[in-house]
Amino acid sequence: MSRIRRLLVPALVAAAAGSFFAAPSASAAPAPAAQCDTASAPFSYVVLYNPRTPERKVDAELRAKCGEKVAYYPEIGVAVATSRNADFQAKIGVYRAYSGGRDVAFPPAASSRSTRSAVVDTKESEETTSVAVEEDLSAQQWDMRAIQAPEANKVSGGSRSVTVGVLDSGIEPTHPALKNALDPKVSAGCNTGAPDTTPAAWAPTNSDHGTHVAGTIAGKDTARGFTGVAPGVKLASVKVVNDDGLILPEAAVCGFMWAAKHRFPVTNNSYYIDPGMFYCSKEPGDAAAYEAVRRAVTYSTGRGVLNVAAAGNSGFDPDKQTTDPNRPHPIDESCGILPKAIDGVVNVSAIGYAGTKSSYSNYGDDVSVTAPGGDRAQLPPTGQGVGCPLSTIFNGAYGAKCGTSMASPHVAGVAALLASRYRHAPPVALRWLLEHQADTVPCGTAAPVCEGPAKDNSYYGHGRVNALDAVR
């Protein structure tokens, strides 16, 4: 949707909050439920309340309607609850409660394609091309040279006082390029909707996606010649991807609220929220998920967090979509891909070695900037690696993956360099610097599909981010 629409939708949702999301008053406390299901499998829900609703009222309503509280974020009026009752959403209100997990288990209708893994793309799979760790890897980091990261690192690698929250599948804590950057004290698992700081909750299990993203942001392995964009900053592993490869709304809300609590200057979000691709702010169920995520993102921005997100790998302009590829429902201007559709989020498209849009990358008016995500059809010269960016993977190894998931952490790394240089700069200032220091990438022969002027078009936004400009 257009930038104007991005501003309008949250305003409309907020205006409706009083009617849709009000908690029961003390004088109208709900009566105890007659009978609750005790045998069926439980599902997690996000549940909306007016911000600052007392927790006792939340507890009372959830109990009365056959739910159990998992977490409550009073600052934004969002609870995470579990319930075994199939009618829990109806009891709470279809505009106040939503369960992504239940929609996965019981799809509303047959979809044109199965629910995808959150870390696998629709047109460009992020299969890993492994490389031998005995090699000097610096020659293969064409993506870093494209944004002048090696030159920037000679000036500054960033500050240890800056932490980037990696909302993803977890970061391997023992990887030689990451063990010095990872800060376990501010890492957490969020898949239940409540933060869990035990290492098992935030460490990766079956996906190295978050480990790859982390290496691009702040990896450093002198012995192997590998260096990320901002090797001097710290990383927090905020695990929001479950073992089925899904990022559900409650996990995302928890992740953004954790980032807000710890005031991370930057987060990276290389995903979209499942099980749909689009969430619609006026649709039952969807409205609750959209609003819960919007509130969490907006709150984190207010607490000084710049959220950077991948544009997506479906190869389309979301503004021109009329149906959701993952769920059978129509799309209009009230719908968006979360979290990138939320106002204030930096939306990143991908380019390949040749510097042109990756074939799989989404595009549109909402693109802020672009960065290397790779393209297997844009191959670098022999000896400079494969067409996908190289980074860290499981077991202390290195591999290459393609995707806007790989473009986004390049931007998060540059944002971390800016946050290191301009301490306590608000997110709006960091975003302005990212965009205005970016190197112009005009549409060229991609017009008329690519629309807009050289410095702000639908393929590349304000241009390719520049790490060197961020530090000098």
Structure write-up:
The chain is 27% helix and 15% strand. Helix 8 runs parallel beside helix 11 and helix 9 runs parallel beside helix 10. Strands 7-10-6-11-13-15-16 form a seven-stranded parallel beta sheet, with helices on both faces. A four-stranded antiparallel beta sheet has the order 2-3-1-4, with helices on both faces. The chain folds into two domains: 103 residues, no CATH class; 343 residues, 3-Layer(aba) Sandwich (Rossmann fold), CATH 3.40.50.200. It is an alpha/beta fold and 472 residues long. Keywords: Hydrolase, Protease, Serine protease, Signal. GO terms for molecular function: serine-type endopeptidase activity.
Biggest sheet: strands, sense, closure? Answer: 7 strands, parallel
Fraction of residues in β-strands: 15-25%
Number of domains: 2
Low-confidence stretches: 1-28, 110-124
Question: Which structural class do you get from the secondary structure elements?
Answer: alpha/beta
Mean pLDDT: 91
Classify the fold: give the CATH topology of the largest domain: Rossmann fold
Architecture (CATH level 2) name of the largest domain: 3-Layer(aba) Sandwich
| Number of continuous helical runs | 13
Q: How many DSSP-defined strands?
A: 18
Round the Cα radius of gyration to an integer and report it: 21 Å
How is the largest sheet built, in terms of strand order?
7-10-6-11-13-15-16
The dominant shape is globular
Separation, N- and C-terminal Cα atoms: 35 Å
CATH class of the largest domain: Alpha Beta
